[in-house]
Structure formats: C-alpha cells, structure tokens
Amino acid sequence: MSVFTLEASLALLGLVLLLLEAFKPEISRRTLGYTAMAGTALALVLLPLCGTQLPEFMQPWHQIDTLALFYKGFALVITLLVLWLTLECAPYLTRFTLDGKLAEMFSLPLIVCAGMMWMASARDLVTIFITLELVTISFYVLVAFARKSALSLEAGVKYLILGALSTGVLVYGIAWIYGATGSMNFDAIGKALANPATSKSAALFGAAMLLVGLGFKVAAAPFHMWVPDVYQGAPTPVTTFLSVGSKAAGFVVLTRALDAFAAPGSIIGSEVQSLLLVGGSLTVLLGSLPAIFQTSVKRLLAYSSISHAGYLLLALACGSGGRFDIGSNGIVAFYLATYLPMTVLGFLALGLMRVNGQGEDLGDFQGLAKRSPLLALVITIAFASLAGLPLTAGFIGKMFVFLSLVDHGYWGALTCAVIAAAAGFYYYFRIILAMYTTEGSEKPALTLTPLTKAIACGLALVILALGVYPRPLQKVLTPPAAAVVVK
Amino acid sequence: MITLGHYLVVSGMLFALGLAGVIARRNILIIYMCLEMMLSAANLALVGFSRFHLVNGLPDYTAQSLVFFTITVAAAEVAVGLAIIVALFRTKQSVETEAITKLQG
C-alpha cells in the first residue's frame, strides 16, 4: 500500500461521515467525532509503515520525499488536535449552529487534511492549484460555521472575498509562469528558468503574482489585513486549524515553488529572494507592532500568527547555504513543528475559557494561576515559547532563522526581526503576568477533563523537549546527501 | 492576424477591471462577480498561451486542462460563496460591505 491511498481513504471517510449525519440523525456527535479522530489516528500510525513507491503515470505530478512525508504527518497531527478541540468546545459551539448539530465540523477537517497531504506531494502547478482550493473552499464553510453568530458570518464573508481574490491572482500568476516557461511541472520550470533565453519579465511577473496569491494564504504583509478579523470571528477550533494547518499548507507550496524559482542559476532567483526578504521584514513588523495594543487575546494570537509567518518567510529567503545542514526548507519545517504545539495550547486556553462561560480578553486571564494552576502553567510555557524564551522550542526555531540571516548578511531584515521579537516578549509576557496577578482570582475555576489535562501537558512537554534537545527532529529534516547534490 | 499579444492584452484588461471592481464596489454580490471575471482573465491567458505554445506543430494542452479545473473549482467556490452570502443576507438584511464592519480593533 502506498502513502497516497491514505489521503484517498481520509477524504472518503469524510464523505461517509457527512452522509451518515444526513441520513442517520440519531448518531451522536461524540460518535462522529471519535470516528473521525480514530480514522486520523490510524492514518498517522500507518503513515511511516506505508510504501513510497508510485505508479509510473503519477510520477510527473506527485512525489513522496522526506519533506512530503513530514508535512503529511504534520497535517494529520493538527487535524487530530483540531477534531479533539472541536469536541472540547462543542457545548459552546452548538449554541450557534442550526439545531445544535456539528456534523460538518467533523467531516470537513478530514477533507482539508486529505488536501494538505496531497499538496505536500505536489510536483506541478495544476496539482498545487486543485489542492489549495480544496483546502480553501472547505475553510470558507468552516469559518462561517457558527451561522447564528453574526461575527462568524462576517468572518466567513471576509475570508471568502479575500480567498477568492487570492485564487484569481494565483491562477493569473500560474498562467504567466506557464507562458514564460512552457510547462506546469516544477522540474521543467526550474530548467527553463536556468536558460537565459527564457523571457525574464514574463517569468518574474508570473512568479510575483504567484507569491502575492500565496502571500494571502500564509498571511504575509501587505496582504495580511484579513487575518485578525477572520481569526477573531471564526470558531476557535477553526482558528487553530487556519493558524497552523492553512499556514503550513501555504508554506509547503512556497517551498516547492521556490525550489524551482530560486534555484542556483535561475534568471529570476535574486529578484524573488529580495521580494521574500522585503515581504518577510514587513510581515514581522506589521504582525508584532499592532499586537502590542491588543486587549483581545484571540486577536493578539492572530497578529502573532502574522509575525510568525514573517519569520518563516525570512527563513525561506535565505535559501541554501549557511551554517545549518538542514537547509532553509528544513528550517521552515522545523519552525512549523515548533509552532504547532504552542499555538494549539494558546487556542485551547481560549476555547476552555469560552466553554466555562468566560471571555477572550486580557482581563479574563487575570488570576488564572489561582483558579487553574495547571492550565496557567501550560499556557505560560506556550506563550514563553511563542516569545522565544531559551529552553523552549520557539527559541530554537527563532535561532535558526536569525543565524541564517546573519550568515547571509541580511542585516536590514535581521534588524526588523529583532525588533519584532523584542515586541513579542512584551505582549506575550503581558498575558503571562496577567495570569499571575492576584486580581480576578475570585472568578470561578475552569473545569478540565482528565483527557484535556493529559493532552495539554503532553503538548507542553513537546515544547520543552524540542527546546532542550532538538537534534532528533533536526535529523529527520536533514535532506539526504544525494538530494543536495542533485540541487 | 490575431497574435498572442492580443489575447494577453484582453486578458490583462479583464483582470484589471475585475481587480478594480473588487476594490471599488461596495456590494458583495458585485464584488463576487468581479472575482469571477479575474478567474476568466486567467483562463483566457492560459488558453492563449496554450494555443501559441506549439509542441510538434500542435498546441500544448497542459494549460487548457488547467482551464477546465479552474472552471470546476470556480463553480464550487460560487456554490459555497453564494450560500454564505445568502446566510449573511438573512441575518443582516443587506449584502453591502457596510454590513460587515463589526470585527475591528
């Protein structure tokens, strides 16, 4: 059995759950949720056991390399966590859905997951376009899912308009890249771009449009304005999925596209790299600085998500070379792997606050350490890691990015990144300090189930483990020597 | 004689019109129509490039296959998008962008 059967089975399971919900309304949401989770968990277990061979006809547009396998695993893990978070937030979410049902909240993430896994293997622009749209259109539904909440609908419409706009720009970019290089396949595009006879202006125009389209998807400045509104309005599990899953998906595509555009000898390589540097520097600043003034923690996490996208873009801009053997693609994958547990924990806290009848503002976090010491400790670890405190996973990820920038001598971008990181320390630690004040400790305590406690502690342990001993993950992501030679 | 340049100019104009509409118009339905126009512009460019990129004397059909995918995806997007816009109209009795300004800060 090859890996791509997993993706097909997941999408099929999603459809089966959807039909079950429609024709057997007596099935409880717990059964549906646990079935979806069991399917995802099974796929995660099977992933390393499956073969990586492909039939002949698939090879031009599908590949299963280390990076693809890593992102497939990443997609499965985040889907599993989102499904669990949905069950966790169900008592609150069902207030805003029609007749208290949550069916699509369990089937659509599976379809999104299948799309993200397929995308990780994409080898040509057509596959990229289809899978990106599969993910985006499913997200339109998910964001607007809490239909009785005006905010969720508003977020849905905003995401719809900007998502569709980015799709238009993306396809137009693909058309021009095809026009300039005469191919949709990344390998062939890379070869054509190494040929000086290829029209440079057409290729650059196409690549720039493609970057703009993807910039919308990964929330890069100046195309990030939709992010705070959509993240705030969407149901919390969906926000988590958007913040981690959709961002990772965008970066897989960027990684693959840049391997073709910015390969050594490419005629548009240096221009694409400067676009990324400028975009990345703007993104870290425009994400971090407005976050200082936020009082809504959900909105603050949205801005934080923007600034993390900026660090990732800067890592990509560094390209090959530098002191790290994992390369820029490996750094991006590593950074995303550290970003997953800390973001999920941050949004888990928000979800639990809502379920317990409290708000999402900074004031609601006051005195949390007295009310729920364990949750407060776990959130402290997550926010310290988001800020980049040493001994947490976030520090290692940021260190990779900063040192790569030093190695390549991108001092301007480094300055922006350092300013953003300093601002980050301020706004993340503001939340941590609020939790440990004595005010607000008279509010009711949060109730956590044993499973919630176990998963939250597990995620916090992952953060600490990666922060202290990142070597195993680094080893997984290091490309084999042969692959480096081919590049 | 109609050349590739003619197709690209028309496609560029369609794209620019669509983008201008998205930025300037206030009615979400009209914005949605303009977005579809941008997709059509991309499709026209794809077909044009495909027709004039000859492989062994025949047009290269890779790009035209993407056009079919784009049309299908656009149909799915419209189905989902109109559903969301209808839901918005039911709650707010309006499809103007002024109706969606609650999320700010």
Structure class of chain B: mainly alpha
Largest interface: A-B, 43 and 43 residues
Query: Largest sheet of chain A at a glance?
Result: none
As an assembly, this protein is heterodimer
Q: What top-tier CATH class of chain B fits best?
A: Mainly Alpha
* Rg value of chain A: 22 Å
Low-confidence stretches of chain A: 482-487
User: What is the average per-residue confidence, as pLDDT of chain A, rounded to a whole number?
Assistant: 91
- Indicate the mean pLDDT of chain B: 92
If helices are DSSP runs of H or I spanning 4 or more residues, what is the number of helices of chain B? 3
In short:
The complex is a heterodimer of chains A (487) and B (105). Chain A has 487 residues and is mostly helical.
Strand and helix layout:
The complex is a heterodimer of chains A (487) and B (105).
Chain A: H1 4-23, H2 29-46, H3 66-93, H4 103-120, H5 125-143, H6 150-181, H7 186-194, H8 200-218, H9 226-233, H10 236-261, H11 269-291, H12 297-318, H13 327-355, H14 368-371, H15 373-387, H16 393-408, H17 411-435, H18 450-468, H19 471-477, H20 481-486
Helix pairs in contact in A: 1-2, 1-4, 2-3, 2-4, 3-4, 3-10, 3-13, 4-5, 4-10, 5-6, 5-10, 6-7, 6-8, 6-9, 7-10, 8-10, 9-12, 10-12, 10-13, 11-12, 11-17, 12-13, 12-16, 12-17, 13-15, 13-16, 13-18, 15-17, 15-18, 16-18
Chain B: H1 4-24, H2 28-52, E1 54-55, E2 58-59, H3 62-92
Helix pairs in contact in B: 1-2, 2-3
What can you see in these coordinates?
The complex is a heterodimer of chains A (487) and B (105). With 487 residues, chain A is mainly alpha-helical. Chain A contains 20 helices and no strands. In chain A, α5 (125-143) runs antiparallel to α10 and α10 packs parallel to α12 (297-318). Chain A is globular, with a radius of gyration of 22 Å. Chain B has a single domain (4-99), classed as Orthogonal Bundle (Helix Hairpins). Chain B is 73% helix and 4% strand. Chain B contains 3 helices and 2 strands. Chain B starts with a helix and ends in a 13-residue tail after the last helix. Chains A and B meet through α5, α6 and α9 of A and α1, α2 and α3 of B.
